[in-house]
Amino acid sequence: MDASTVGRRIARLEHDIGATLFAKTPQGYRLTAEGGRLVAPAEAAEKAAKAANEATRQEAGISGVLRIGAPDGCANYLLPQVAHKLCEAHPGLEVQIVALPRVVNLSKREADMAIAVSPPDTGRLTVQRLTDYHLHLAAHRDYLQRHPDIRDLPDLRRHRMVGYIPDMIFDRELDYLSETGVQTAQITSNSVSVQMQAIRAAAGLGIVHDFAIPFAPDLQVILPDRIALKRSFWLLRHADDRGSRRMNLLAEALTHNLRAETARLEGLVRAGMTRDT
């Protein structure tokens, strides 16, 4: 709903309670001490309302909004197809994809579920391994035609590399270049999608998700026997959602479809590498 409606409702709530719940600051709104004391009861009320809604919902389908937070590689190359499958199966469902080059904060309700590249060490969360995925070094065929041949790892030092901005790598699992023996990259971004576009523009070599390669048919995998990375996606959920039938069904459907889509796209890449050899 629009901000003015939210403002009116909050003002009415503050009037009824007789306390100021939010204070306006130059950075936005923040909870007052009175507002902070209401967070836990409000979350309990929301949980009870959702449970009541689920108890009366028809068994045929799942409706409402599902917001999924994910790193931008997963969000760009996997989740659109997964969202399509979910909405086909449940016409009353609206899927929102939040693509961020960082870990989505579930405690701040940035999303209903989040996909991460490593399991968190802290927080009241339910954590589940979704699927493994693979990455390889790749470059555009035009780049490879214009630059020296690459026959082994030492040859990479003569090439321009594309990768992450070092001080913006938000998870150690994303430190891909360290596994190639190359210490620095000349073109860097905190976004997987920006890196991919640079590689597609024949700007250099870079580590690419296998599931993204089918979207760029002119990319060629380099040294697949020497540089082959494996990582995992993890599904993070609010601990309080474990008793929600709706959220459990959605998590199950998301897991099934993400695994299937990752396997489908990676299968295309494996088939291409087999033909090249």
UniProtKB/TrEMBL annotation:
What is one GO biological process annotated to this record?
A: DNA-templated transcription
Q: Which family does it belong to?
A: Belongs to the LysR transcriptional regulatory family.
Record keywords: DNA-binding included? yes
What name goes with this protein? Transcriptional regulator, LysR family
What keywords does the record list, in alphabetical order? DNA-binding, Transcription, Transcription regulation
User: What would be an example GO MF term here?
Assistant: sequence-specific DNA binding
PROSITE patterns reported in the protein's UniProt record: HTH_LYSR
Question: Residues in domain HTH lysR-type?
Answer: 1-32
**Keyword Hydrolase carried by entry:** no
Q: What is the lineage of its organism?
A: Bacteria, Pseudomonadati, Pseudomonadota, Alphaproteobacteria, Rhodobacterales
Enumerate the InterPro entries for this protein. LysR-type_TF_proteobact-type, LysR_HTH_N, LysR_subst-bd, WH-like_DNA-bd_sf, WH_DNA-bd_sf
